[in-house]
Amino acid sequence: MLKNVSEVMTSNPITVKTDTPLREAIKILAEKRISGLPVVDDAGHLIGIISETDLMWQQAGVTPPAYFMIFDSVIYLKNPIEYERELHKALGQTVGEVMSQKPITISPDKPLREAAKIMRDRKIHRLPVVDDSEQIVGILSLGDIIRDMAQVES
């Protein structure tokens, strides 16, 4: 039997807001043993996601882009805007400064197979589940899918 996302997702996920201190988000991730948190606005609409990958900038830091100078001009070999974004993540103190914006989402009535394909193709570990009004209603993680597969095999 083909399942929908709503049958496997984690309902009512823990969420944070953009002004949540980064230390608080890190504590939630560690204590709950989860790898990412949806970020919502005051109305509960999904606006981003903060993950372990986003937090690695804090520990690893960033490398300035390579460049060379010709006369009085600087020519970057890598987009300096990307460097600024990475630097912002490395120095951020709130969730809003570090989160990934515009995450890929899925609706709860979509087939689980479709969600798994999106996660595989995009190489993502979690997929926020939103309703028609962009309210977060759940989150589907790789762990949720694997646990469901284990139940089917039993």
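the 2nd protein, sequnce then structure:
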Amino acid sequence: MSKPRTLSPLDRLLDSAQNAVSTVAGDPRAERANPGDATPDVVLDATERRHAAGLMRINHVGEVCAQALYIGQAAVARDPATRQQLLAAAQEETDHLAWCADRLRELDSRPSLLNPLWYAGSYAIGALAGLRGDGWNLGFVVETERQVEAHLEEHLQDLPEADARSRAILRTMKADEARHADDAEAAGARPLPPPIPRLMAAASKLMKSVAYRL
């Protein structure tokens, strides 16, 4: 049985570039069935549809950012096990990305126009976090996922009451994010210094405000 191929820094850079193009300009495919497919769609009025689309656009941007963060962190991770854990989580984020894109189309809307900017900034943050070492790398995963869990819970409460299809997607996403955080903690995540979570929360608040409209 042949050994898994060891990727060179150039290989990782090319993989990262391919992921960026696929995430921002492509049409990512989910490996799992869309949780919303089992829920009958309903006709929302124009106001409800715009609001649901704004929330799902925020969640789509969140998945673009998560994809970039994980890929950036994996590109510089020192431990192969940490790298594999990050890449496995990134694949589940690809599922989320595809599900949110599907729902935006159903709502006659579109992803954020600023997705290339969101991706580039998140990739840089992920790579910088990874360069601090795998403990910090995993700590960043924990904090990111806990904050994502919180905003998904907000959206579950804020979606139009009739939009059970979007709600089914967000419930599955929330469960996945919680598991990613738990796995990172179990793998040896280090708690981040107090200023970093606050800065992350402030950046997330700005992203949500812009992505709801653009």
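The mean pLDDT is 86. Residues 10-20+43-211 form a domain with the Ferritin fold (CATH 1.20.1260.10).
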